[in-house]
Write a structure and sequence with these properties.
The chain has seven helices and 19 strands. The relative contact order is 0.19. The protein has 307 residues and is of the alpha+beta class.
Length: 307
């Protein structure tokens, strides 16, 4: 039996659960906690792949109704929050890249806020930046690309880079300073993909446009087991996932983002596939259950473990 230390952040995820979908992957588990309060790692298996979620930071945000549910009334927002037993006047944001070790490739999905923060989180999982063979960018928002560079040099010196062609083309003509500083210099080492392309064997792209023009999720498959990385498809487990038609300020095409949420979340619920959400409460791992008019987030408890 592997002992786990329950931190305050991990407790946030567990406290939300009233049920779970059991035996999804039938493995054993381990949580790895670093010395830094904002650098944590959680490891589990998807078939023969080792998957690690990496907490690179968390912060409290005031007035979440200015971000989530901008198309619903303040009373509706407050009532939904009360029913979910969360405050309506603040939200806790989590930032969680994911590492997939297939045995032949070490693939990092998104790079977090800064070079030091992603390096510290990797160290919590006993990895170094030099071990990363592929860096996959789900989209180009700053909290996903911020760790690409450390003091002006590439953080992942040995990696190749992969991102959606549509996403890259949009930002390349947007005159965005951060993109120009940290992404453009890496373009010569980048491969550009579209929906349903293979990143490495066992990892396939999954279009989920709307949050940004070329936002992508990724399906991970090994030995008959699956996991979907949804990135920023849904940025809150109640105000976005549970109510997929609620508009989110950060979504660039709000109708398309809502349609993508319904399609992908519906698939996850129907097929009982676990997922990692970049902004879900750490360890950012859970399931989607159907609910009248929407969905319900079911946080991971002990279904997915490390062998």
């Amino acid at each position: 039996m592997i002992a786990q230390k329950l931190t305050r952040r991990a407790a946030l995820a567990s406290a939300a659960a009233v049920s779970f979908l059991s035996n999804a992957l039938g493995a054993r588990a381990q949580s790895i906690i670093s010395q830094s309060p904002d650098a944590q790692a959680y490891q589990f298996n998807v078939g023969s792949f080792k998957v690690t979620t990496l907490l690179v930071g968390t912060r409290t945000v005031e007035n979440p109704h200015s971000i989530f549910g901008t198309n619903v009334s303040a009373r509706t927002f407050e009532d939904v929050s009360s029913d979910a037993m969360i405050p309506a006047d603040k939200s806790q944001f989590f930032f969680t890249p994911t590492l997939v070790d297939t045995g032949s490739a070490v693939v990092l999905f998104d790079t977090g806020l800064t070079g030091p923060s992603i390096t510290n989180a990797l160290a919590a999982a006993s990895y170094t930046p030099q071990q990363v063979t592929h860096v996959v960018l789900t989209h180009m928002h700053g909290d996903h690309i911020g760790g690409l560079m450390t003091d002006g040099t590439p953080t992942f010196a040995n990696a190749s880079y992969i991102t959606g062609q549509t996403e890259f083309d949009f930002w390349a003509t947007s005159e965005n300073d951060r993109f120009d500083r940290v992404v453009k210099p890496l373009a010569p080492k980048m491969s550009f993909i579209k929906d349903q392309d293979i990143v490495v064997p066992g990892v396939t792209s999954l279009a989920s446009f709307g949050h940004t023009p070329g936002h992508m999720g990724y399906r991970v498959e090994s030995d008959g087991q699956q996991l979907v990385l949804i990135a920023d498809l849904a940025n809150h487990y109640v105000w976005s996932l549970a109510y997929p038609d609620w508009e989110v300020r950060f979504d660039m095409d709000k109708p398309q983002a809502a349609a993508s949420r319904r399609a992908v979340l519906g698939m996850l619920a129907a097929d009982k596939i676990p997922f990692v959400g970049y902004h879900m409460p750490f360890p950012a791992l859970g399931y989607v259950a159907p609910r009248d008019g929407g969905f319900q987030y079911v946080p991971h408890s002990y279904q997915m473990l490390l062998t």
